[in-house]
Amino acid sequence: MLLLVLNNLCSMESEGIVIRIKTPVGDMDSSVDSPSHLNFSDLLGAIKEVMPEATVTAFEYEDEVGDRITVRSDEELKAMLSYYCNTVMEQRINGLLPEPLQIFPRAGKTPGIRNIHGLKVNTRPESSSGRGSSAADSRSSDSSLKKSSAELKKILTNGQINEHDLQYQEQLGHGNGGTVYKAYHLLGKRIVAVKVIPLDITVELQKQIMSELEILYKCDSPYIIKFYSAFFVENRISICTEFMDGGSLDVYWRIPEHVLGRIAVAVVKGLTYLWSLKILHRDVKPSNMLVNTRGQVKLCDFGVSTQLVNSIAKTYVGTNAYMAPERISGEQYGIHSDVWSVGISFMELALGSFPYPQIQKSQGSLMPLQLLQCIVDEAKECAATPLPTAFS
Description:
- The structure is a single chain.
- The longest helix is centred in the middle third of the chain and has 25 residues, at 133-157.
- 33% of the residues lie in helices and 22% in strands.
- A hairpin with a 2-residue loop joins strand 1 (17-23) and strand 2.
- It folds into three domains: 15-107, Phosphatidylinositol 3-kinase Catalytic Subunit, Chain A, domain 1 (Ubiquitin-like (UB roll), Roll); 159-242, Phosphorylase Kinase, domain 1; 247-382, Transferase(Phosphotransferase) domain 1 (Transferase(Phosphotransferase), domain 1), CATH 1.10.510.10.
- The strands form four sheets. The protein has a five-stranded mixed sheet with strand order 2-1-5-3-4, with helices on one face. Strands 6-7-8-10-9 form a five-stranded antiparallel sheet.
- The protein has helices spanning 2-7, 40-50, 74-93, 133-157, 203-218, 257-276, 325-328, 335-351, 368-376, and strands at 17-23, 26-32, 55-62, 68-71, 101-108, 166-175, 178-185, 190-198, 227-233, 236-242, 247-248, 279-280, 289-291, 297-299, 306-307.
- By secondary structure, it is α+β, with helices and mostly antiparallel strands.
- It has nine helices and 15 strands.
């Protein structure tokens, strides 16, 4: 099934497409004979020919729910073409004629009118004196808490889904303080994933959930699951996200190199996006990597994520089996900790089993001392299993 999922990515390599450039003065259609060879700069050049007076540095397209997705690079262009490819396939299955790929140029302002209001920015460095730092930290902390509460209130108030709009179909999984269901949204006419979390949980778990809501609300990436809404019912909160019909990668046994390579690209791009927002995932593992039959790979479950700028934590957070050595030994951690977890995850997907066979990964948990001995101390009796010889 996974091969079917990812082979959809390249089904239009030999077909031509029509790109419709939407401009303020009208539409312009452009034919592309070989979409697989199209790059971002070529398409941007075509847009500039249509809009010679504008400063165009990017363009947008609309996804299945009408949201605008910005394209600024070759990678994002490929994601757009992959999305369009799947849309065309669905249209053909339903007996419809494929529509052109519509893009919306993003024109920047000319230098003469960029700052007509005389906006100024204070660039003076902060005082090197430590005077008043405690009070400042306190005010900053209070402000951060207020911002979190305000953002959560906005999410819950403006949500587009409520309990009465959903028809629950089946339970998908359980963990991290809640249960995940597959449900049908009546008004939106689409399948969604609903994570239902009871409120009688620890304060620490409540903080993790708040963090997850904020991160999902801010994220806008084709490699991160989409957040639709959240709502309260009695003593529980429900978080609605997009449904990935291929499930998580932990249910697939051994994945061939050419398929795993594509998965790796998507996962790394998703993490790079989070890191650009100064966010650590902190629970990277195969069960948090989702796939669908449209050939997409996305990251989910940020219940143990945190802002990089506020993180100096040394506690054991996340799934122990995928912990980086510095986390096991109690040192500070950062992006490299996520990278370690990615490496362990990809090794497991390539081998079809956990790369440290001597470590019992039952229930995704084990003693830190056991990990410390095997990984940090590099004990010979529990060396990692090498990759298959067929891998390059």
